[in-house]
Amino acid sequence: MTNFPAGFLWGAATAPHQIEGNNVNSDWWVREQQMPGMELSGDACDSYHRYREDMQLLADAGLTSYRFGLEWARIEPLPGRFSKAELAHYRRMIDTCRELGLEPVITLQHFTTPNWFAEQGGWSSPDALEIFTRFVREACGILQDVEWVATMNEPNMQAAIMTAMQRMSQQQDATWQSPTVDTEQSDEDRKRSSRNFLASADPAIGRRFVEIHHAARDVVRELTGAKVGWTIAAGALTAQPGGEARMLEIRYGKEDVFWEGSRGDDWVGVQAYSSQEVDADGLVPHPDRPDNTLVGTAYRPDALEMAVRHAWDVTGGVPVVVTENGIATSDDEQRIRYTDEALQGLQRAMQDGIDVRGYLHWSLLDNFEWGHWEPTFGLVAVDRETFERTPKPSLAWLGAVAVRNELG
Fold this sequence. Notes:
Number of strands: 13
Order of helices and strands: EHHHEHHEHHEHHHEEHEEEHEHEEEH
Radius of gyration: 21 Å
CATH topology: TIM Barrel
Helix content: 40-55%
Strand content: 5-15%
CATH superfamily: Glycosidases
Shape: globular
Number of domains: 1
């Protein structure tokens, strides 16, 4: 069987900071200005003004869904001060989706936060739960008829970054107190530390994110009729001989705390791109191969099937939406080949009884990839000078799959 269920969501995903442009009140905007060597988001794809054009491309191709985010930093530029104009802007985006026959999938927080929130300690702040749920309550005022809402995008990656920053701070403190600490570290120890910089996350941080997610979920359920969940970055990790225990340790802090936190949700977003091995020392670097992606990861379309099966097992059967899957490549034929193989694997999982409600490709547009412009994930190319959109063959290919609701 190659067909998908009736009502299956077919679409693509974006994140506001990566496509809108000039998100000047966010923590990421400030970070870009301060970090040497980091490229700037600037005008990005100017999708803040061109969202109808972007949605039209999706609809014209035959796709049925669009996942996009509400930019918290625009809506609440100062603590407790909410912009009615920005809320109205995002409501117009929802209405445009409806007009074009697209089902909106709304993300309330996609990596970025207001800079004032970051300066108060961000997610580490004791008031983070109250501050975020205050924002969610305001956002729900425009979501009454939205069916799919994600509270957060990849909180496990946010937790991994927070863990890494804490460890760096601890190392700096130790070096300040004892300048011999770093010099006594062997080259092998340094390599091991470097390759595991974002390998794991403190489970305590993860549990705090779960608590915040549950509070936000309660608000969404109170104020809307939406199905609510969140999206998790899946590593599709495998263990080399001797690396089994280390893999379980890494995967627990980096993923499983969050999959467990999805129990009781209406759905969970699975986001998978590649797979990686783990040995006794931690993550094994991706081998250098010709078909590696533009971000250095291995060509592994089977990662999606692996991730969906793992999410289903750990959540105890929470319905899945593939909220991100794609490949950083300049070769669009490779993108089509990757997506076709990933969807074949997804279908195998579904044939085994896993409840998957949709597939949203990352990304609709070639966009700003968190400090870099080179990695191109999009179904549509964007001229950064003129903002002209040029659909790639992969958009038409995925649209044809959506129209047939089956693989060819």
